[in-house]
Design brief:
Blueprint (H helix, E strand, L loop, with lengths): L1 E9 L4 E6 L4 E5 L16 E9 L2 E9 L13 H4 L3
Antiparallel strand pairs: 1-2, 1-4, 2-3, 4-5
């Protein structure tokens, strides 16, 4: 799982963007959330998520709020390894 902070939310359209610690911008949509409602997310919230390749770039799925006791995989891998076919 990757970690990042929400940097943008477009509530009427149901999507937003997350920035990881290494500066990767990742798209997310409300239908890919896990155990949280879209309306409860705010800019600055720390989240954990999985990344896959979308038609326009990286996208987050299984997104949930970060908790202190969750272990996550650091996102310090090069983008080529994240999207390795």
């Amino acid at each position: 799982m990757a970690r990042g902070k929400i940097t943008f939310i477009e509530r009427p359209k149901g999507y937003g963007f997350i920035e990881t610690d290494v500066g990767l911008k990742v798209f997310f949509h409300q239908r890919w959330l896990k155990k949280i409602r879209f309306r409860d997310l705010n800019i600055g919230d720390e989240v954990v998520f999985a990344i896959n390749r979308g038609p326009r770039g990286p996208r987050a799925y299984n997104l949930s709020l970060s908790t202190e006791d969750e272990e996550s995989e650091p996102v310090s891998r090069p983008i080529e390894k994240i999207f390795k076919d």
